[in-house]
Specification:
Layout lengths: L3 H8 L3 H9 L6 H13 L14 E6 L5 H16 L3 E6 L4 H13 L4 E4 L6 H8 L5 E4 L8 E4 L1 H14 L5 E5 L6 H12 L9 E3 L7 H6 L11 E4 L2 H13 L9 E6 L2 H6 L2 E4 L2 H18 L9 E3 L2 E3 L11
Parallel strand pairs: 1-2, 1-3, 3-4, 4-5, 5-11, 6-7, 6-8, 8-9, 9-10
Antiparallel strand pairs: 10-12
Length: 327
Amino acid sequence: MSTVRIIARHTGFSIATISRAINEPNKVSVETLAVVRNAMQELNYEKKEKIKKKSNIFGVIFPNISNPFFSELLGVLENEAFHNGRCILFFNSRHNLHQEKIALAECKSHGVDGVFLVPHSTSPEYLQTIKNLPFPTVLLTQTSPCLPSVAVDHIEGGRLVADHFFSSGHNKIGYIGPISKQEGKYIGFIDRLNELGINISEEFQFNAVEGTFLKGFINSCIDENRNLKISALFCMNDMVAQKVIEILTEFGFVIPKDLVVVGFDNTFTSRILGITSVSQPMQEIAHVGFQEMLDLIKENKKFENYSAQLLLPRLVLRESSLQLKRK
């Protein structure tokens, strides 16, 4: 195999000129560059790729650290990093795509070994730009064939809530959360209810995101006699479930006597307030995600498609949904 020294002798240029032509081609003339590249091809020269020095730092980008689920998940990721001799560089994107892109750019400038990301968007075009960055990225809580991903099976989580409502005798049911074909918990919930012969009126489906004003929707679920039109409500996460319970209590209703409420994530909020919730196995998500990242670094190559690693959820029953079966 030829070397820089051999090319220098062959072309008559200095070793420094050959090195600039190879590594900084914009700093030599077009004529010199052409001669050097012809010599490289003639002598079968292959540029050695620089071996990236490990930083032992992983970037973590979450959309909302005020959500107890993400703060708890960050804690278990930090614990995994510590036991693997690594450190965490954390960014809060605040549900803002521009801020998420800035965080990714910062991860690149800091030379992180990899990034754990809860993405603002899972569009193939956007994820492909992330895939092209010089580090592996593992998606957490969301899935895409474009990148390695670890998440709980949200469809199964929605089905668990539907089964719980049905077995408790509820058929006047509501939902608060994103309404789309990409929202697994919603799809699983609605499809399972349909299988059980229960149809949720659009009136009782509130297409919400975090921070959405909820009082208007709750008011729409109360009739002229101040009775609730629904008996069970599935919320997108524990934060929303907590807000709903606070509003209903303010309106004079009693949980679960007047309305049973179920959240999602099983955060410390649900544990403290006694809210029934779909549990996401955070320890397992962090552990599996970390092992996936270490494997990616070891393999040092990217594939066109990936299979998501889906973990099973479970429904944790608490006071907010435990009551006598309705007749």
